[in-house]
Design a protein that fits this description.
- 2 copies of one chain form a homodimer.
- Chain A is α/β, with parallel strands linked by helices.
- Chain A folds into 2 domains: 142 residues, Nucleotidyltransferase, domain 5; 118 residues, 2-keto-3-deoxy-galactonokinase, C-terminal domain (Nucleotidyltransferase, domain 5), CATH 3.30.420.310.
- The first copy, chain A, is built from 9 helices and 14 strands.
- In chain A, the strands form 3 sheets. The first copy, chain A, has a 6-stranded mixed beta sheet with strand order 3-2-1-4-7-6, with helices on both faces. A 5-stranded mixed beta sheet of chain A has the order 12-11-10-13-14, sandwiched between helices.
- In chain A, helix 3 packs antiparallel against helix 6.
- The longest helix of chain A is centred in the last third of the chain and has 17 residues.
- The radius of gyration of chain A is 20 Å and the shape is globular.
- At the A-B interface, strand 9, strand 12, helix 3, helix 5 and helix 6 of A face strand 9, strand 12, helix 3, helix 5 and helix 6 of B.
- Chains A, B: Pfam families: DGOK.
Chain lengths: 293, 293
Amino acid sequence: MTQDEIRPDWVAVDAGSDALQAWAMKGGSAIATAHKNASLASAGGLGPALDALTGEWMVPDGTAVVICGPVDGSGEALRPVPCTPLPDRLSAVAHRGWAVHAVPGLARKTPADLTQGAETRIAGFLALNPGWDGVICLTGPTSTWAEVSAGEVVSFQSFLSGEMIDLLSSQSSLARFPETDGIDMADFAEAVSDSLSRPERLAAHLSALRAGAVTGALPPGAGPARLSGLLIGAELSAARPYWLGQNLALVGASEDTRLYAAALQAQGAGATVADAGRMALAGLTAAHRLIRN
Amino acid sequence: MTQDEIRPDWVAVDAGSDALQAWAMKGGSAIATAHKNASLASAGGLGPALDALTGEWMVPDGTAVVICGPVDGSGEALRPVPCTPLPDRLSAVAHRGWAVHAVPGLARKTPADLTQGAETRIAGFLALNPGWDGVICLTGPTSTWAEVSAGEVVSFQSFLSGEMIDLLSSQSSLARFPETDGIDMADFAEAVSDSLSRPERLAAHLSALRAGAVTGALPPGAGPARLSGLLIGAELSAARPYWLGQNLALVGASEDTRLYAAALQAQGAGATVADAGRMALAGLTAAHRLIRN
């Protein structure tokens, strides 16, 4: 099938904070996918992002586009928990004659919290695991821990740990760590343990990491592992009620879920692991069914 | 006096992680100063940095240059605490025929920690306050709390809080806070209190801050104040043994020391405040005296 023969029935779009992915859909099956290393903001907004993602497909007027992510920054469309991850119906805005349906995020007022895509991954996980109860941890630049019971999100809590790891490892005085092939899991586990026991010392632990790199006391390659371990350990400390003695699922990119799973395993907490993209597509497919009703 | 008449006896240089400052010295007095918004690394190294700073002065061969900061990245010159902030004597390396004397930093092996200029500010503070005992908190991208007794640094602990505030407020998903004229001290105090009582929730507090900005729940202008308060509050939580019931001095830029002083004051801890540049110059002047002995 050549590119110009790709004529989707509908289009699914996952707008993450660091990547955009679209699927050309025929019913419940993806016939093609497109990816951009951009956010909605850096792509120039919703319209230009949709145009860039679907540029090589034939998408006729009237086609439904279902999108999750930070589409509406005003927060007007947010839904207070407890509630089902998806609403009863989706409303549309027009772009190029397409009917664009944005999945509303979940919200808590005090302290302020919201989801911008996590609700759709949760819906996808529940669509693939009917009747599942427990806590879903969605990893990424923002991680979200969501307690799910009887098909509803009962409570959730987000953390900026992933974004802090990204910033500190790329933009900070720690960014001069020598390149490594991967994360040393022993160094990672030690840092998780240090941070879990003294989470308030995060900025001191980070300073020790840099001092170790400057003085040569830090083993080569240990830097990135310890950095991730310190931030994930601090998150586990604050998220303890969400994972201690809970039925757990981890939804994210494989490199992220591997670290969270190892950190949780060291605390005796096992977790089911699921791929973020697959859960997003399942959630968007469930959301697409709401349009027809 | 025109620029080409500036002929220093010696040159004092404070190489900070975000700024370089040099003073043309006649005995104990500065006759001119030069400033660059750069680090030694971004200026191209020690030689080019010295050339750029002193380019408009007449600095003859044999002139002594005394410099503090991250001059020697190898850590070989570090001095384990407890020790006096300055060594007994300074050794020199040559540049352009000048005798460049770098003040060695202080070090602790486990957990790794080091100073790269703080030791010189401490020496300056003690030169101006003879016989002073207590704890000096040196604010900045890296903050250092140093316990001083009988002229020696007994222990110290550094934190990366300042750099995290800078990164999060300029490079992160929080960086879209609307511009403000300054820090709202009530918002700052509330965030310090939140973070002091639950320091392990830093990444959750930061996520709440972003969610509040997205949903409009955060008052305009509260963002930068709460960001600084969360990081400084977490630092105060971990540094408690350094400030609780101690004779305290804050050394830093005025905008930093004002925030730390307010946060400490709310915990009932008063502090003497001193300017970082003035303490650096006093410390470099004390270090210069070591060359002659």
